[in-house]
Protein 1
Amino acid sequence: MSQNESFEFRELTKADIEEFDALQRYAFQITSNEMARTGWSDRAMKQSMKPIFDSSYVLGWFYEGHLASQVIVYPMKVNIHGKIYDMGGITGVATYPEYTGHGLIHKLLKNTLNHM
């Protein structure tokens, strides 16, 4: 599996929600039973993800058209000694195990730092 041949780097869109949801659930062990126990339905969980794509910078690596690795940057502001600065909160960092060792997260994080 050569990174140059089959991997595509791009920003995720709402069209990627299904694959985004699947990687989130896999990486963070989110089960439908656990969601139901805490009052969330699968539909409500997916619906809650849509604003992420409106307000955040979501990047991913795709292998043969399928999401392999992702990161989310939430725009924020921080007050340091009375001065407001823009900043980004990094979350949702995940890679399927079969794609580890290719430097995908390293490149995603480097890109997020350049973006910020």
Protein 2
Amino acid sequence: MKPTPIDRSLVSDQVFQALCDAILSGSYGPGESLPTQRQLAADFGVNLAPVREAIKRLEQLRVLEVRQGEAMRVRDWRSHGGLDMVGHVIFGDAGLDRATVDAVMEARQAMLAEVAKLAASRRTDAQSQRLSELAGQLEGAEDAKVAQALDFAFFTEMIGAAGNVVYMLIMNTLRDLYFAHAELFIAMFEDQRELAPLYAAAAEAIAAGAGSAAASQVA
């Protein structure tokens, strides 16, 4: 791969994105070495500072291994990457990856079913009340955009009721990705009045401590 020179605005972001796309697309495969930082800077037509910043970010994503005095080697992102890789995989240089979007939605559904069970056994009265309120607000949402925001608020509250910090951190990671590209999911909420009874039933089941019933409403 020989990158083309890029604009000077947000240079490190552009260098990072170009290298990240190259790794995800397989232009640089696992175990392969990147050109030196000086060579990358020359290829991109930039100075060393943005290249170093981009390399640091790739190292933090665990898709690049950097050792002093050695070549920078690509790691297999499927084996070493974390949740912060999801956004880069979904929106790569080839455009939207529908298979990854479907995988995210599948994982979300499975996670929320387990969260509902935990919430049913751990929720406080205040959390139960809040879930019921959010379900009611969703039924009266003025449009799909409002319904979408209420949906996320409902499930965030449910995860809080579940009392599992790992699920909460996962939700935090997905939140930024989700709302940065909310338009991709807006169609799910165009008829929120059909969805609202499911939220109300889930809130009622959680309040009653009926974990399996709550899970069935969100799965």
Protein 3
Amino acid sequence: MRQLSELLFERKVNSPTISSGTLTLNLATGRYFKVTLDANVTTLTFSNVPSGVDCTVDLKLVQDATGSRTFAWPASVKWANGYIPTVTATASNYDIFTLHTDDGGTTWSGFIGGQRFV
């Protein structure tokens, strides 16, 4: 049976910042990331990906009040039928994605969780 602390760790809201176009998701801090797109993301990296276990990450990308920020997916993220999604460009709207790996982060499967238009 899983401990409550494990469940809370996975659902803790992490809000990493974009630095010079790079967004790093540090899995040592949790598995749920809410990122305000206040700059274009040209590089997405993952750090501290556990090996030898199934790992799922939820990523919420929120456009800032300016909007039209772009997000580049790394080649390690594979999407169904080769479709690579773009993020919603409208200011203050968001997209939710789920990423899954079982090989320590070498490859990720990407799933679109939904969009919210405000």
Protein 4
Amino acid sequence: MKISTLKNFVIFKGMSNEEIKSALKSLSYEQKNYKKGETILHAGTITKKMGIVLSGSVTIESIDILGNRSILSHVASSDIFAETYAFLANEPMAVNACANEDCKILFLNIENITHSCNYDFESWRIKLIINLLAISSQKNLLLSNRIFHTSAKTIRERLISYLSFVSLKEKNNEFKIPFDRQQLADYLNVDRTALSKEISKMKKEGLIMCRKNHFSLNDSM
């Protein structure tokens, strides 16, 4: 784990090498490796640590009592997860954090991030809190977008809503999504077979082109 690499992560934005070192030491950092499909944090767990994805990716999932899975978000490399639960400290997780692929996770204990034995906070604490606020705001927007995608009545409408959003975000009609077909179905809360049929129809109609998780949208869509 190189400090120079961590400086590029949003959570450490604006920090010097020494500030990052102080943060890692004060927050009792721990690095762990996980295999694809492995659960990193289970629903019901009380955690004092947030996770930072050093490599690979993570999905945040909810599974109901019947075993139906919904994917709430995708956590890419350099992004963070479980920070809200870690900050609250005593709130059980309502979701699972699962390895979407082989990944390396850096854990930081942020339970006492606002506590300091000094009258003035160290500079790294202030910067970390500001960065956490910015990241949390961005996550709220992403969750709001998912609600918007899944509120549509038909599978086609949900798919168009999501693909249009990704296209707008990437500023390109051609892009890759972070989900395989099953994960996309879980994210949009639809049946996988029905989703695949709808994608095939849209391809025949010339609305989209796709290969696995690579999509290209027709300008008229």
